[in-house]
Each structure stands twice: as C-alpha cells, then as structure tokens.
Design brief:
Layout (H helix, E strand, L loop, with lengths): L9 H12 L21 H11 L1 E4 L4 E4 L2 E2 L11 H12 L4 E12 L5 E12 L2 E8 L3 E3 L3 E12 L10 H5 L12 E10 L5 E3 L4 E2 L13
Length: 221
Amino acid sequence: MKIFSSLLFPARALALGALLIGVDSCSVSEQVKDKPTGKKASAEAMENEAYTLMQYRLNFVDEAKLGGQDILFVRQADDFSSAQQAQLQTALAAGNLPLHLKMRVYARNPSVTSVQLKQLDYKLLLDGKELTTGTTGVNTQLEASAIETLPINIDLNVKPEQLNGSTPAAFAAGFTDFTAANRRLVVQIRPLYVGATGRQMPASSFEPVQLVTAKKTVSAK
C-alpha cells in the first residue's frame, strides 16, 4: 500500500509525519466504549481502540479557481484587475461562475490495528455557512502506523445568493487564506468505519479538521 504519492520527496514525507505525530484524535461515536484489555482483547475491542486513535489533518488548498481565474493567493478584491472583476461579474450574471478546489486530508492510524474506512464525509463552511458537502476515502484501508492521503475535489457553480450581496471578487478574497486569524473556509469531517465482521461505526457528528500545522497543546504543570 502506498502511504504517500510517489511525487512526495522523502524530506516532505518525514516532515508531514512529524506534523501528525502529536495531534489529538478525531472523536467517534459514543458506541465506542469497549477497550482492549491485554492479550485476550477481542478483535472488536481492538477495532474500537483504533477508531478512537485515528487522526485527521487538512493540508492547505492545492488549487483554487473561480470563473477560471486563479484565486489561490487572492487576499483582497483589489488583487483582481478591473477587467478580471468585470469578467467574474459577467460570468455570475450568466449563471456560469464555476468554483474549483483541490485539497487533501491526511488520515493517520497510530494504532497496531488496521482500520477499514468505509467513507469520510466532509462539509465545507464559508463564513460559517454551508457551501457544499461530499464524500472521499471510500473503502480505504488504513494500515497500522501508516498515513493515507484522501483527496477533496470541489467543482460547483456559485449562485448569486451564495455571495450574500457581495461581488465575486469579494467572495474570492481570502478564500484560501488558512493563515488568517479568522479564516473563512472551514472543513468539517465525519468518518464512517466498518469492522471485519461488517459492523459499521460512524462518528456522532461532523467535526472541524485542523491543519497539518496545528500544534499539540501542552498543558501547564
């Protein structure tokens, strides 16, 4: 099984591994209460433990285009020229303003038990409002002590009501800026696991996924 794409250089892979080592795990359904207890632990208990230990982190946006124009580094409306702003406005009026995004979620399984991810549901929120939903990672085997890359590819047509009265240029401003104190785009996830016996174990609700750069909070002694 490939842990990372062959396009990742070893140094980048090591850096990513280091970023994911100390993260907190994503919570799962309240049904997960059974814990392994020594050598006689059941397979189901081992799976439950693995589910609670699973970790997810979101990479920065890889690609972002609005109306065919690159918005990856657009931080304010004035980053567009007058001609570009007019082009976006014309596309919106014509009902053809496509938004294209490419992102990645890294799933790390730090346990000694392999996990079968049936699917990872995701929800994108822009300025606190739902933008779109989808699913990735369908039927992905998450091997013990391994990291898998789960792609999130978004292609949707932006409607006037999604702009909340603003212009397409303002809509794009800061869209992909994950370094901002109040970043506009938030991704929430909800994993669904399936055990060796076919037992499904969904998370209780969607939860925000942190960035790969998120640091573990150290409690004061």
